[in-house]
Amino acid sequence: MNLVEIIKLAWPILVLQFGLQIYAIVDILKRKKTKNLSPAVWIIIIIIGEILGPVVYLLVGRSED
Predict the structure, then answer these.
(1) How far apart, in Å, are the Cα atoms of 1 and each of 7, 35, 44?
(2) Is 15 strand, coil or helix?
(3) pLDDT, tens digit, for every residue of 4-59?
(4) CA distance 49 to 38
(5) d(Cα 51, Cα 48) in Å, to the nearest integer?
(6) Residue 34 burial (CB < 10 Å; 0-12/13-18/19+)?
């Protein structure tokens, strides 16, 4: 498998990851309040956590305002 084939397979996952990260960060900035951790810590988790970070935030960290 060459590099072009790997990129063709990986781009949907990268787009999904980037989209989830942007959505979660925008959600934090709109709400200004989160559960369990401060918004700054959640943003760090989202950026470092790649796909898992935004999913954890959306399931656990979102406030219900």
Answers:
(1) 10, 44, 34
(2) helix
(3) 998 899 999 999 999 999 999 999 999 888 988 999 999 999 999 989 999 999 99
(4) 16
(5) 9
(6) buried
Q: Taking the model in full, what pTM does it have?
A: 0.85
Distances in Å between the Cα of 52 and the Cα atoms of 25, 55, 57 are 14, 5, 9
User: Would you state the pLDDT for residue 48?
Assistant: 96
Q: Answer for the pair 44, 56: CB distance below 8 angstroms, yes or no.
A: no
Domain holding 14, by residue range, is: 3-61
Identify the bridge partners of residue 34 per DSSP, sorted by sequence position: 62
CA 34 – CA 45 distance, rounded (Å):
13
How many domains would you assign to the chain?
1
